[in-house]
Amino acid sequence: MSVGRVIVGDSCVAEGADWLAGRDSRFAAALEQTGPLPLRLREDGFAALLSAIVSQQVSTASAQAIWGRMVAAGLVTPERVAAADEEALRAVGLSRPKMRYARALAGAGLNYAALRATPTEEVIATLTAVPGIGVWTAEIYAMFSLGRADVFAPGDLALQEAARLLFDLPERPKERVFRDMAEDWRPWRSVAARLLWSYYRVVKNREGIS
User: Which pTM was predicted?
Assistant: First the structure.
């Protein structure tokens, strides 16, 4: 089993967007409103996953503030996190559960370089075996830190709401239904996600959706 297509630049995203627009006229209409889709690639590795854990269940502003303190304290490597005592982790703003998750990630011994050549399903299974990393976080990591072109995050509420609006559904699709629905967007499911997120922002700004 291979990793499949990997997104490495804007041209890859544009290729996927064109494919989706040709497959479904509603995607084409959404793309006209959003314009070119963002690349959104980021670095992989321990810090990327630790940042995702920090961001869970807090506002964007709070997450950025906590992460800024962690960077300033040098708490962005497995060695430094593992060596930090509870007082040091509390001082940067980590809750007790997140301290536990950060330490679990630090001690997990993940081979981040090897994950780059690992099929997406195995990546998600490997990451979700670490306490504090759920399926959504693992899917987002595969999508943006590993650049996988064909991964989706059906549990994402913004994606669900965007799909409800774009496809004129009676309600937000449940995660299992949404995952099945996204099968039709292979092999560009991560570009479909980018398109739906962008469409959500456009409609939200236009109509004041919260």
Answer: 0.92
